[in-house]
Amino acid sequence: MRVYPEVIGVASESSGGTDTLERPDNLPQDGGQGPVPVVGTDTVIECRGLTKRYRVALGYEIEALSSLDLQVKRGEIFAIVGPNGSGKTTTLKLLLGLIFPSEGDAFILGEPPRSRRAKRRIGFVPEGPFFYQHMNGEEVVRFYGRLCGLRGRDLRARTDELLKLVGMSKRRDVVMSQCSKGMVQRIGLASALVNDPDVVLMDEPTSGLDPIGAHEIKELTVRLRDAGKTVLLCSHLLEQVEEVCDRIAILHRGSRLAYGPIDEILQITDQTELVAINVSEDAARQLAAMSSESHTRAGELHCMIKEDADPFQALDVVRQGGGELLRFGRVRESLEDAFIRAVTASAREDAAISTDAADTGGTADMTGGSDEATAEEGGEEA
Fold first, then answer.
1. What's domain 268-332's architecture?
2. What is the pTM of this model?
3. pLDDT-based confidence at 357, cuts 50/70/90?
4. Do 268-332 and 43-264 fall under one CATH topology?
5. Domain boundaries in the chain?
6. 120: which residues sit within 8 A by CB, 6+ positions away?
7. DSSP H or E stretch at residue 326
8. How confident is the model at residue 212 (pLDDT cuts 50, 70, 90)?
9. Do the beta carbons of residue 272 and residue 257 sit within 8 Å?
10. Which one, of 182, 200, 199, 190, lies nearest residue 142 by Cα?
């Protein structure tokens, strides 16, 4: 079995949120090759026309990723989102050098993906990690620490730090065969940070975690960014991505549909939201008549004013009804809304292209048939 010490995992704190990430003092550099060169710009990860095709049958290929262009900046959280089969995991595998591109180039820290110099500065969190079943959590983290060159007191200190970070300090002695899926994921996350990476790649990092565990992983992801690290994650949990990411790329069928700062991708809708308290019953009825949606929650009246209604008239109703305005303004769509909008538009475009191709093919067939008939007539005349 060949072990790749360059590819290690990432994690989250179970309570407090006061721990800080520190680089082990004696963590080996690059085996005499010198440190990884500093990228001249703020770009840490770059894809240029990255394409991957798989041969599935003789003479037949499927394109899992099509001409992907993107840049991930230093110290940001970047997310690649998309449905299953959109090319998210393929992108990560290409960036890690686990598979080769059919076309295009990728760079991490200014190096090709298969460069050992770059891999030593990368942490990787796979979806559904698997470890030796006879090892316990502490042994797994120590195992990866030794692969990265840590020994003795430094290895013990780093292991304790990371187990605490992922909330596994009190369950460090549980063997992998008896761990739940969430526990295994936490150990995998801890292993990703053992080499104190500059770049952390995560594939569905909250997979198998309960809501509390998922929230802790989100908090750690933000702390990694605050510590100056760059995080690239792939996820289909759009709500979680929206909460923590600085920029995103939306993939669908291997193609990039949207790319940029999340605030620029999420559009402002035509709907106006109004939230008020202490509104009289009569005013509440008037507001409900002006709204496409109206409900009261925890003493607050929430209204979505109809597009054909005057939102400022609704303000007057609140004031005249003795209410207090808490929030008023246009609604920004959620990441889920933006995702569905982009995918739906892409599907319509694909359908239009298919229709045009079918129409063109039909015309060509009719023309070809006409030519054949002409040739046959010519033959008969001859």
1. 2-Layer Sandwich (3.30)
2. 0.69
3. low
4. no
5. 43-264, 268-332, 339-374
6. 6, 30, 36, 195
7. strand 324-332
8. confident
9. no
10. 190
Query: What does the block give as tokens for 279?
Result: 């509104």
d(CA 30, CA 162): 22
The CA-CA-CA angle for residues 197, 198, 201, to 5°, reads 75
Phi, psi of 39 (to 5 degrees): -65, 135
Q: In what order do the strands lie in the sheet with 199-203?
A: 122-125, 199-203, 230-235, 77-81, 247-252, 255-261
Domain 43-264 annotated CATH 3.20.20.60 = no
Q: Are 236 and 267 in contact (CB under 8 A)?
A: no
Alpha-carbon gap, residue 363 to 379, rounded angstroms? 24
Cα–Cα distance, 160 to 162 (Å, whole number)? 6
What count of other Cβ atoms lies within 10 Å of the Cβ of residue 223? 17
Q: Which amino acid is at 300?
A: E
Provide the 8-state DSSP code for 176. Answer: G
Least confident of 200-209, 223-232, 264-273, 351-360: 351-360
**CA 138, CA 175: separation in Å to the nearest integer?**
9
CB 144 within 8 A of CB 8: yes
